[in-house]
Design a protein that fits this description.
189 residues; mainly alpha; 4 helices
Length: 189
């Protein structure tokens, strides 16, 4: 029985390293926040993929719905980021400058055991990879949406804008291009 108590005591000590203030290191809370951020970021990546498909199909209703979902997920991510900062500030309570700046996970490593450090680094790397993919996909969607809007604007100008504003042909029936004409049409004939 003494061996079992010693193993339990060792496991508990490994899970909760003491902080300078004497409190137990809140690793389970940090890991929970990181796991939730990874799950939400994975879901956000799926929303961006759906958004790309909706952009390709020009499905406005889906785009509106996906925009709302993105806003909700971004709010959740921001709340989790805030929670993680609060936990980090508790750990670094002795550092008065920690209140005025963003604390990085790497700053918490001195308070962790080797196993804790490896686990946190693994989650941090997964989260960084997901956020990089999110940034890349968001940039692609933004670029695609901008190009699509440009084409739609050109098409509208071709269909109705230029007909009423400026004639496309001169009195000699030679084609002329107005300075505000769409970029979609070639200038060569």
């Amino acid at each position: 029985m003494n061996t079992q108590k010693a193993v339990t005591k060792h496991n508990t000590a490994a899970e909760k390293t003491s902080m300078p203030s004497g409190e137990a290191f809140p690793l389970p809370l940090i890991l929970d926040i990181l796991k939730r951020q990874i799950a939400i970021s994975g879901g956000f990546l799926a929303i961006l993929e759906a958004e790309k498909e909706a952009l390709i199909r020009m499905d406005v209703n889906s785009l509106i719905s996906l925009t709302r979902k993105k806003e909700q997920e971004l709010t959740k991510i921001a709340q989790l980021d805030h929670s993680l900062q609060e936990v980090a500030r508790r750990i670094l309570a002795w550092d008065e400058n920690s209140r005025q700046r963003i604390i990085k996970l790497a700053e918490l490593i001195p308070f962790m055991t080797r196993e804790q450090t490896l686990t946190v680094k693994k989650y941090r790397d997964q989260l960084a990879s997901l956020r990089e993919k999110i940034s890349s996909n968001n940039l692609i969607n933004k670029s695609f949406a901008s190009a699509t809007l440009g084409y739609i604007n050109d098409a509208i100008s071709l269909i109705c804008g230029e007909i009423t504003a400026t004639p496309l042909y001169s009195s000699r029936s030679l084609r002329t291009k107005s300075s505000s004409g769409p970029a979609l049409m070639s200038r060569e004939v």
